[in-house]
Specification:
Structural class: alpha/beta
Distance between the termini: 39 Å
Helix content: 10-25%
Radius of gyration: 23 Å
Shape: globular
Amino acid sequence: MWRVIILIAVSVAGVTTKSCVKRRSESTGDEDGHYCVCNATYCDTTPHVFKPRNLERYFLITSNKDGLRFHVSSNIFRNFTPNDFSSGKISVNRRQRYQDIIGFGGALTDSASFNIFSLSKHANNNLMKSYFGPGGIEYSMIRMPMACSDFSWRPYSYLMDNDTSLSNFSLTREDNFYKIPIVKKALRMRNGKIKLLTLPWSPSSWMKTDNTTLNENSLRPEYRRVWADYFVKYLEAYQNNSIEFWALSIQNEPASYLYTPFEIYGLRMTSKAQANFLVNYLSPALKKAGFGHIKILIGEEQRQFFPEWAEVIFQNQKARNETYGIAVHWYYDHLYSPNILDKTKELFPEKYILYTEACTGLLFHNYDKRVVLGSWLRGERYAQNIIETTTHFASSWIDWNIALDLTGGPNWQSNFVDSPIIVNASADEFYKQPMFYVLGHFSKYVPPGSVRISSTLARSEGIDSVAFFTPDNATVLVILNRNEVNKKILIEDFDKGTIKINVTAKSINTIKYW
C-alpha cells in the first residue's frame, strides 16, 4: 500500500506535494470520516500556492468529509451577474479592514512532547515537519505550560519545599530532554518565525493556602513576590537555552473552580488579585530582570467571563498600560454569544483578543469517546469557531495539545481529550485528524501580519466565511460548508469581479487570489 501511495503526488505551481494515505474512521454517523496515516517513510504534505502570472486566476484549496485533503484547483474571474447564484453569495471588500492576525498554533505540553519522542527519529521528524516545515501547515505560535499542567505524566514543580530564595530552582527532564529540543527544532524549521507563549498552571503546593495543588486554593499573600520571581527564573532558564518568549499570561483559567465538575490542577486568582499581582509584583520583577519587553496577557478564561474580567483589571490604569492582550478559551463558546468579544474590543480597542486554548473530547462536554479517529464533525467545530471568533476580533487561535496518544493522554488527572495529531507509538505511526487540516486552512494561508477584511454573506444557510488580506498582497477567503449537499457560491470582489465556485458538502475551502 505504501509503495503505491508514494507515487501519488500532485504539482501545484511547480511544487510537488504528497497525498494523504487515508484510513476510514471506525465510528458511525456524524463522526464518520477519514484520517491520514504517516510513518517514518511517508507523510502527506501541504501545498503552497504562488502568485500566478495571470492575476485573473484564483486558487481553491479544499478538504472535505469525503476524503479530500488540501485538494488544489484553479480558475479565473469571470463576469457573472450579482444575481447569478443559487446557493449563496459572499461579497469581499479589501478596503474595509479590521484586526491584525497574530497567528495560529498549538500547545507543546509535556504529554505532547512525550508522544513526539515516542516515535522513531524519522517518524518524529515527519510529525514536526507536518506542523512547522515548509511542506507543513506552518504553525506560527506555540503555547507552553510553565512547569507541568494536567497534561504531564506527573505533577511537579521547579522548586524544593519552602525554597523562598529560589536558590534551588531548576528545570526538569521534561524541559531539558523533551520540550526544549522540540522548540529548538520547530524554530529551525520555521526560521525563527514562531511566537512562544508561556503561563503557569499552579505554584508549588507550599505556596498555596491549604498546601495542595488543586485549583480552589489561592496563593498565599506572603509568597506573591516569590511567585513573581519564579516567572523570572523560568524565563532566564529558557533564555540560557537560547529560547526567548514573546508573551506570557499571569495564570491559566484562574476562575475555573466556579464551574468545573472536578478538581483540576490550577490556582484560583480573582480579577482584582490578578491586577494587583501584575502591577505590584510581576511587572516590576520582569522589568528589573530585563524581560520588560515580554507581552503580558490577562484572562486565559472562557468567553462568559468577559468583558467584566477585563473591566475590573483595567480599572487600574497601570494594569491596563502593562497589558498587551486578553486571552480567551473556547470551551463554553457554544453557550454564549460572540458579541461578548465585540463588546470587549469596543471597551478596550487597543487590546488584542487572543484565543489561546481549544480541544474536543472533553469529559464535561459529554463526549462518549475522548479520541475519535477521523471525526469530521470535530474538525467542523474547529472551523466554525475559528471563523466565528476571527469575525469577532480574535487575532489568534491556538489549539491545545499538538500530539496525544490513542487514549488522549498521557494525563496524570485522567482528563483525556482529542488532538489534531494522534500518535500510535507501538506501530510507529501518527494520524492526522480532520482538525489538523482545518487548522492548516488558516495557519498555512493566513500568515502573521494578515488583516481581516470585510466579507458579507447572503442566502447562506449552513455556510460560514471569513476573509483576510495577507502580507503578500493576496486576498484569502475561507468558506465552511456545514451542509450535507454541495453549494454553488458566487464570490463578489468589489475590485476583482466575480467567480462562481462549487463548495462540496461538508467541506472547508480556502480561496486565494491577487
